[in-house]
UniProtKB/TrEMBL annotation, chains A, B:
It catalyses: isochorismate + 2-oxoglutarate + H(+) = 5-enolpyruvoyl-6-hydroxy-2-succinyl-cyclohex-3-ene-1-carboxylate + CO2. Coiled coil: none annotated. This is 2-succinyl-5-enolpyruvyl-6-hydroxy-3-cyclohexene-1-carboxylate synthase. Homodimer. Binds 1 thiamine pyrophosphate per subunit. It comes from Ornithinibacillus halotolerans. Pathway: Quinol/quinone metabolism; menaquinone biosynthesis; Quinol/quinone metabolism; 1,4-dihydroxy-2-naphthoate biosynthesis; 1,4-dihydroxy-2-naphthoate from chorismate: step 2/7. Residues 221-404 form the Menaquinone biosynthesis protein MenD middle domain. Belongs to the TPP enzyme family. MenD subfamily. Its cofactor is Mg(2+); Mn(2+); thiamine diphosphate. Its EC number is 2.2.1.9. Residues 14-124 form the Thiamine pyrophosphate enzyme N-terminal TPP-binding domain.
C-alpha cells in the first residue's frame, strides 16, 4: 500500500465510523493541512458538510446545531491559530454540556516546535475544557491501524454523548502530500458493516426504599417549591408538572427550563417569580420548607437573593450525572438520578400526596397573577425593549426554536415569556454566558431545518456578524430580532452606572453603526419597525421570508431602565398590599 | 480600611506600577467583573486606554500596537469566554515574541466551579502560550499586599520583555462590590516614588577567541551566504550589510527582515531569491559553502527546497536568546548572541576579510538582475495581484509601516518589494501565520500614531472586519489595500486544486460579498480602482485622507495563478541560459 493509499484508507475509515456512530454533520473551516479529512468528509455520502470560514463562528455554528439537534457535531480546521479560534465555543460546549467532536489537523512531529510555518503546540490545547484529548497516530494502512481509527471515531462519539455531554478533541498529524485518492476501490470498507463498537448507556435510578422515604418526607412538609432551571430534556415537562400538581406546590420555571410552554399542564407554573422576588418583604412572606431543583441555577438574580435568605431550607438538587451547580453556597442534598425517571418513580411510590389547592400554592398564584397582570398589560404602542420581547413571544410560530442572547435578552425573556400551549424550544449559551458567537449559534440551530428565531442585543449581534455569512451561503431560514440600545444596556442596571466620568466610555460603549448595511451585505431582508404594531407585522412577515431576516428595534438605554424599574415597582407595590393584609 | 478602600488601593498600586514600569497603553473590553481595573486604568493620567468590544479583535489590536512600538501593551477583559477570545492573539504573541500583559478578571474562589454565571476555569487558561501565569491574591490593603501588587506589576512588564518577549497572564479574583472609590486621597501612592523594582538586562556576547576562530573560518570559505529572515530589530540592517560587504557574500533578505529598504547600503542584497530558487538546476548552480542566518526562517518555500538540497552545508543560526527555529532538519550550529553585537564584534576582529567582488557574489547578482528585470517590468495597465503590490510598495510613504497579511499577501511582498532607500517597517503575524486578527493588528499598529498601510486578501479582511470598529471609533489613519480574488487564492497553488469535484467548495470558498457596505458601515473612505493608474491614484489619495481608507482591488484567482507562473517561468528560462554558459 503506497503512502497515499495509507492516508486515504486511514482517514476514510475514521470518517465512515463517525457516520456509523451517528454523526451527520461536520463544520469545516478551509485550510491546507486538514485536506485529507476535509475531502473525505465531502466525499462521504451520509455526512453533510458546512463550510464556515471564520473558525470562531464555525465552532459556534456547530454548537448551535448540536444544541438544537442534541446530536454530536464535528468541527474540522487546519493547524495554527485556527484551532485557538475554536476555544470560546469549546468552553461554552463544556460548560453547557454539548457534544462536539473537535478535529484539528497538525504538522507531523518532526515539524513541531522547530519554527515551521503555521505550527503551534496543539497538544491538549483546550486543557480541561474537553472530556477527552487524543493525539492520533500518523496515518497507516494496516488492519490494526484501521481498526484503531474506527475505534477512536466510535469512542469519540460515545464519549461526547455519555454522562454529561461535552467536547472531545482529536489532533491529527498529517505529512505531505495531503491529497487522498478518492478513486480507491471499496473506500469505506465493507458497505454493510456494522458499527465497530456500540455503547448502551444506562440511566441512574434511585432504589425504591429511598424513593419511599423521600416521598414521605415531601408529603410531611407543607410548603414545597419546585424550581426548574435551564435544561434541555423536553420530556421532563410532563414529569415535573405532574409532580408539582401531586405535591400541591408551585414551580418556578426558568425560561430555559423547556416547561413554561407546551402541551403539558402549566397551572402550577409561576412565570413571574423574578418580578415577585425582587422585594425583601415579599420574599420573607413566602419562605419555603424545601426546594427541589431540576436543571442549572435559574437566570433570575432575585431568585438568588431569595435562596441566600433561605439557607436553613433544605435544598435538593437533581443531577443526572456528576456536577456541582450550587453557586449560592447553601447546604444541599444532591440527588444523582435521571430527572425524568426520578419524577415518574416518585409519582409511582406516592400517588396520594397533597393534591388539592392549599394556602401556600394559592399565595404564590395570587402573587403571580398580580405580576402577570402588569407584565402582560397592553401598551400604548411605544416600542420598549420589554414590549419587543412580548410581541416576539406572542407571534413566534408554534413548533419552533427561540435562541436567546445573553445579557438583557435572556432576562427580558425571563420576564415576558408567559405559559402557553405553544411548543417552543428555548436555547441559549448559558454555560459561560458570553455575548460572543450568538449569531453563529442561532444560524447553526437553523441549519437543522427547524424554524429558528434569534433574539439578541446590538453588542452581541456586532460581536459575531461574521456568523451571518453561513446564513447567506446556505440560504438558511432565520429571523433575528436585534434589540439595539446602542451599547451595553445591562450595565445601566449595575452600580457602575453611578460613575459619570467613565461610565459611557467603559460600559455604555455605543457602537453607532448602521446594521442595515451589514444585513444588505449578507443579502438579508431588513426591517426596522418603529411601533409595536409595525414590529408585529415585521416579525410575521419575516417568518414568511426565505433566508435571513433581520428585524432591528432601536431603543434607548435610559428609557429602558426607567421602564423596567417602573414595572417592577408597580408589581412590588401591588403584591405588598396583599402581603400586608 | 474598608473593603472598597482596600480594593481601590490594591488596584491603584498595581496600575500605577505598570505605568512606572513603562506601560503606556491598555486595551479594554467592556465587562462587569473587570470594573476595578477598568476604572483605575481610565483614571490613571499616564496610561491611554483603548476600548475594543470584541475581545478577539482587542487582543490583536494590542498585538499590533505592541509589534509597532516594541513596548508591552496590556489587555483587560471580564471573566468567561471573553478570556478564551484572547487565545488566537496570545498564541501569535508567543510565537512571534511580542510582549503582552494579559489581565483577566475572575470570580472569587467561592464562586468557581459551582455553576455561577460567567465563571469558567481561568487558571493557566493559555497553557504554555504565556511566559508566566500568576493567580493574583484577593484585594487587600496592607502595606505588604500593596508591595506585592507593585512587585507583580513590575515583574510582569520585565518578564514580558526580557529574553524573547512574550505574553504574561495575570488572573484577578474580585468580589462584589466592584466599584473602586476614585475620590480617595493619594490614590497613586507617593507621586514622586521611584519604580518599585528595576531590571537591567544584559545582552549575550561571544568571547573574543571564538570570534577570532569564527572570522578565520568564514574567511577561508569562498562561497558564503547570509540569510536574514523575519526579525524586528531595525538596527540590525547596518551590521548585516556591512558584514556581507566585508565578507563579499550575498544577503538573501526576507521582506520581514527590515533590511530590504532603508538608508543602509543594499548593494549585496538579493531580493529575487524566491524567484531564482524555484528551479532545481539553478539551485544546484549556486551551492554555498556556509549559510549564516539571522532571524526566523524566511517565508520563501523555494529557499526551503534549496536548504533541503544543501544538508551538507554548514548552517549557522544566530539567536539572541533560547529558541530552536530550524524546521528543515539540517544540522546546525546555533550561535546565541545579540545579533547587532555579533555583527559589530565580528567586524572588529576581522577587518580585512574578502572585501572585493568575486565570482560567487557576481553570479548571485547577475541572477538577481534577471529576476528584477522581469519583476519590475512595467505592465500594460492590467491590475493583477502582483501589480497591486508593486504599485503599493512604490507609493507607500517613507517612514511608514506596512502590515502584511498572510497567505498570498506576504508572498507577493516577498516577490515585489525591491531594495530602496525608503525607510519602511514591515510587520506581519508570522508566528502562527494565521489569517485571523489582521485588521485589528494593522489598526492597533496605527494606534501608535505611525502611518500604517495594511495589505491583505479578502478572506483575511473578512475574518476580522470587526477590527474596523476601532479605526472608526478612534479615527485612526490607516490605508487598507484588500486584494479581493473572492476566495482562498493560495490554494490554487497547491495540489488540492487538481480535485475538481470538491476544490471550489472546500478551498476556493468564494465569499461573494460587497465590502463597500462594510467600509461604509465603519465610516471609511472606499476606493475600487480598476487599472494600475487608478490604483496608484487611489493609494496616494488615501494617504491624504483622515481615518480609515479601504482600497479594494478585485482580481481573479485563475488569472493570478497563470500570471505568477508565467513570470516565474520567464525568470527561470533567462537564468537557465546563464547557468548553461
Amino acid at each position: 500500500m503506497n503512502t497515499q493509499e495509507q492516508l486515504t484508507r486511514y482517514v476514510a475509515n475514521f470518517v465512515d465510523e463517525l457516520s456509523k456512530s451517528g454523526l451527520t454533520d461536520v463544520v469545516i473551516s478551509p485550510g491546507s493541512r486538514s485536506t485529507p479529512l476535509a475531502m473525505m468528509f465531502a466525499e462521504h455520502p451520509q455526512i453533510k458538510e458546512w463550510i464556515v470560514l471564520d473558525e470562531r463562528s464555525a465552532a459556534f455554528f456547530g454548537l448551535g446545531l448540536a444544541k438544537q439537534t442534541k446530536r454530536p457535531v464535528a468541527l474540522l480546521c487546519s493547524s495554527g491559530t485556527a484551532v485557538a479560534n475554536y476555544f470560546p465555543a469549546v468552553v461554552e460546549a463544556h460548560q453547557s454540556r454539548v457534544p462536539l467532536i473537535v478535529l484539528t489537523a497538525d504538522r507531523p512531529h518532526e515539524l513541531r516546535d522547530v519554527g515551521a510555518p503555521q505550527a503551534i503546540d496543539q497538544i491538549k490545547l483546550f486543557g480541561d475544557y474537553v472530556k477527552n484529548f487524543h493525539e492520533m497516530a500518523l496515518p497507516e494502512g494496516t488492519v490494526e491501524m484501521l481498526n484503531y481509527v474506527r475505534t477512536r471515531a466510535a469512542r469519540s462519539v460515545s464519549e461526547a454523548l455519555s454522562g454529561n455531554p461535552g467536547p472531545i478533541h482529536l489532533n491529527f498529524p498529517f505529512r505531505e502530500p495531503l491529497t487522498p485518492d478518492l478513486n480507491l476501490e471499496n473506500i469505506w470498507g465493507e458497505p454493510l458493516r456494522e458499527p465497530y463498537h456500540i455503547w448502551h448507556e444506562g440511566k441512574k435510578r434511585l432504589p425504591e426504599d429511598f424513593l419511599n422515604y423521600f416521598a414521605e418526607k415531601l408529603s410531611i412538609a407543607r410548603r414545597g417549591l419546585i424550581v426548574c432551571g435551564p435544561q434541555v430534556d423536553e420530556e421532563l415537562a410532563e414529569g415535573i408538572t405532574m409532580l408539582a400538581e401531586t405535591l400541591g406546590v408551585p414551580v418556578l420555571a426558568d425560561p430555559l427550563s423547556q416547561i413554561r410552554t407546551g402541551s403539558h399542564s402549566t397551572k402550577n407554573i409561576i412565570e413571574g417569580y423574578d418580578a415577585i422576588l425582587r422585594n425583601e418583604v415579599i420574599r420573607a412572606s413566602i419562605k419555603p420548607d424545601y426546594i427541589l431543583r431540576f436543571g442549572a441555577m435559574p437566570v433570575s438574580k432575585a431568585y438568588l437573593f431569595y435562596l441566600k435568605e433561605n439557607q436553613d431550607v433544605t435544598q435538593y438538587v437533581i443531577e443526572p450525572h456528576a456536577g456541582f451547580r450550587e453557586p449560592v453556597g447553601n447546604p444541599t442534598e444532591f440527588i444523582q438520578a435521571d430527572p425524568v425517571l426520578f419524577c415518574s418513580d416518585l409519582l409511582e411510590v406516592s400517588p396520594t400526596l397533597l393534591s388539592e389547592e392549599n394556602d401556600w400554592l394559592t399565595k404564590w398564584k395570587s402573587y403571580n397573577d398580580i405580576a402577570k397582570s402588569h407584565l402582560t398589560k397592553t401598551s400604548d404602542n411605544t416600542l420598549t425593549e420589554g414590549e419587543a420581547v412580548k410581541q416576539l413571544v406572542d407571534v413566534i410560530p408554534h413548533n419552533s426554536s427561540l435562541y436567546v442572547g445573553n445579557s438583557m435578552a435572556v432576562r427580558d425573556v425571563d420576564t415576558f415569556l408567559m405559559t402557553s400551549s405553544k411548543k417552543l424550544t428555548i436555547l441559549a449559551n448559558r454555560g459561560a454566558n458570553g455575548i460572543d458567537g450568538m449569531v453563529s449559534s442561532g444560524v447553526g440551530a437553523a441549519a437543522s431545518g427547524q424554524p429558528v428565531t434569534l433574539l439578541l442585543g446590538d453588542l452581541s449581534f456586532f460581536h459575531d456578524m461574521n456568523g451571518l455569512l453561513a446564513a447567506k451561503q446556505y440560504k438558511l431560514n432565520i429571523t433575528i430580532l436585534v434589540v439595539n440600545n446602542n451599547g451595553g444596556g445591562i450595565f445601566s442596571f449595575l452600580p457602575q452606572a453611578a460613575n459619570e466620568k467613565h461610565f459611557e466610555a467603559l460600559f455604555g460603549t455605543p457602537l453607532n453603526i448602521d446594521f442595515k448595511k451589514a444585513v444588505e451585505m449578507y443579502d438579508g431582508n431588513y426591517h426596522q419597525p418603529k411601533t409595536i404594531h409595525e414590529l408585529k407585522k415585521a416579525l410575521q412577515l419575516s417568518y414568511g421570508e426565505l433566508g435571513l431576516s433581520v428585524v432591528e428595534v432601536k431603543t434607548d438605554r435610559t428609557e429602558n431602565l426607567i421602564w423596567h424599574r417602573g414595572l417592577w415597582r408597580d408589581i412590588e407595590e401591588d403584591i405588598l398590599k396583599l402581603v400586608e393584609q
